[in-house]
Amino acid sequence: KMMKYMRHKPVGPGELPTLKELSTSEICKVWSGASRYIHRQLLQKRAVEIGVGTFALVPVHASVEEGKVLTVERPVFIVSKLLRAFYNLECDETKIPDEIPVVQLDFEEIAADTHFRREIVELCVHETLLCFAGALAVKKEVEFSFK
Questions:
Q1: Which contacts of 121-125 are long-range, i.e. CB under 8 A and separated by 24 or more positions?
Q2: Does residue 147 sit within a domain?
Q3: Is residue 144 part of a domain?
Q4: pTM of the model
Q5: 146 in a domain, yes or no?
Q6: Is residue 143 part of a domain?
Q7: What pLDDT, in 10s, does the model give residues 19-70?
Q8: Which residues form the CCDC81 HU domain (predicted)?
């Protein structure tokens, strides 16, 4: 599944038929739905794999006052090892604790939440990630923001 996000060149418009049909606000609605889904999973102590990497809550140690260290959970996005190697990306080595189950995006649930057809949701996510991969291929700076 991840292989399709390994690209040597940017993505041509012909590879993005769904994104061409959707308005920017519709694409944002789909991703807002995806981000709400991810948020719900994180609250239930699950990690979510989205094809190019995984969203997870990982324990980090925060110094609060002299000699006191507090363990807090921090939401992180961990780019997949294969993609890191393929694109030669420098990322912090973050490990998801073994006891945390990893789930995929549930396109059915996101579709119900956003009132889009399931196929539209899945294709919109897939084509956006292709775009992202194409930008990585040509070392373009990419910004993805999640609520």
A1: 121/30, 121/33, 121/34, 123/17, 123/18, 124/18, 124/19, 124/22, 124/26, 124/27, 124/30, 124/31, 125/30, 125/31, 125/34, 125/50, 125/51
A2: no
A3: no
A4: 0.88
A5: no
A6: no
A7: 999 999 999 999 999 999 999 999 999 999 999 999 999 988 888 888 888 8
A8: 11-89, 101-147
